[in-house]
Structure formats: structure tokens, C-alpha cells
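#lab-general

N.A. 3:47 PM
ok so I finally got the sequence cleaned up, no stray characters, all 310 residues accounted for. can someone with queue access submit it? mine expired

B.Y. 3:52 PM
send it over

N.A. 3:53 PM
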Amino acid sequence: MGFVPLRAAGRVIRLKSSRCFDNAMSTLVRSCVQLTKPSVMTLVVTSGVTALVLEGTLLASPLKFAAFLAGLFLTGGCANSLNQYLERDIDSRMSRTCGCRPLPLRALTASQALTFSIIVGLVGVLLLALVFNWLTALLALAVIMFYGFVYTLWLKPTTSQNIVIGGIAGAMAPVGAWAAATGSTALMPWLLFLIILVWTPPHFWALAVHFKDDYRRAGLPMLPVARGDRAALNGIFYYTVALFAVSLLPLAVNFGWIYLAASLILGVIFVEKAYKARRHNQPHLAWGIFRYSILYLFFLFLALIMDKFI
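B.Y. 4:20 PM
back already:
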């Protein structure tokens, strides 16, 4: 019968304790990152990058360029974290969120999530204020407050048009980027804002149609829950047509052949998908519309960037 010397046993215990600590820290960091909704923030950061590239000033200052994106991610991540903190009970009742978000999974406590949200929000706002200007910082703070409280606590649980108004929060990144670079705003960032604002309802309603039972179970009056799939598919189609028209407006300010081709091709495909789902009243097509909407916005903004450099 063998035994482990005391000194060796101590080393084993310390090694196991170190591994447990590392695993705990890894889980904590991963859970905090998940609070920021990194997939959502990818599109937000893309829209901010697009505005910075079109404006052009910060292209000569890579550190400031990166600093703005860091501030944008931190403040946007704060809004998303606050949203998850406030909706933790709702998320626990929805199949879409209960198995992947850190609070329903109990990977974080509510107090940890709130503390993280406050810290990254303060750091992000101060970063934007000190490196750039208070206009940029105040815009970011307004987004946090609007998304965290006006949308999450008021609009979302009370009206089926919640995302039509709530989309303002997700659309502000280009305006904030322009303010960071220039200290003011201009027509172009507001056109990008308008594109995102009109894009948001068909994007989100398609998701809501696919997860309609989830939202009904959570007691949230999303459009397909409050008025049915037909109303949601009609809304998706009408907003997609409006998006097609709005997407052409930047050509009047900054014409580019790549963007012209992209807006026409991407827009026609989007309208065709929405029309098909509406005409045949096929809610099962909503998931495809949702997934395409993400690619649509990414490649539309990428086309604007490409026109700047080609």
C-alpha cells in the first residue's frame, strides 16, 4: 500500500487549488463577457467603425481609433449587461436564453452582474470623455440609460411596438463615432443611424416570430404574440421595403459604386425573403430572415468601407 510524502502532498494540494482558482476565474471572465452580448456588439462596433472610416480623421491615429472602439464596446456592453440583470427572471423562463446566459445558469450572481455593468459603464463613459469629448460620453450614457431602463423596463413589457422605439439605442453608434472624431455630428452618421433604426424591426420581429412561444411564456407583448404572425410578417415586409429605400440615401452624400451595387443586391434579396414569407403566410421562414438580416447589415456597411479605400 503506497503513500504520498507530506511535502509532495502539499504540492499536489496547491496545484489542485491553483487549477480550481484558474477554472473559477476563467468561468467568471467568460460569464462577464457573455453579459455584454458580444455577438450583438459585433454589429454595433461594425457600425461605429464604418462611421469612423467615412469621417476619416481617426484613421491617422490608430490608438484613438482603438480607444473609441473600446469605449463603444464597454458602454454598449454595460447596456447589455444591465438588460440581462433586469431581465434575469424573464431569461430563466425562455428556452432561448435560460441555457446560455450567465444569470439563469447561475454562473454569476445578480450582484456580480450589476457590479460588472456599473464598472464597465463608468470606465467606458470616462474613457470617451477623457480621450475624446463630453458629447460622445453623454451620448453613450444616454444609450445606457435608454436601453437599460426606458426600453427594458417600460417599452418591452408594455407595447408590441417596443423595438420600433427601442431600436434607437442600437442605432446610435455611428453618431457617437462621428462625435468622437469631430466633436459634432453631420448628415452621414444620422443616415447610418436611420438605416439601423429601420433595419431593427424586421430583424427583431423575425426573431420574435421564431421564438413566439418563448415570449408568450415570458409575458412579453412582442408583435407576433400581441397581434399574431400575420401582423408580424406584414410589419417585416413593410419595414424591409422602407429599409431598401433608406439604404440608398447615403449615395446622395457619398456616392460609391460598390455601395450602390451592395445596397441594390442585398436589398432586393431582403425584400424578396420578406415578401415570400408574407405572401404565403409562412412563419417558419422567419428564422432565415433573421439570419440574413445580420449578414445584410454587415455587408452593407462593409461596402461603405470598401468604397472609402478602393
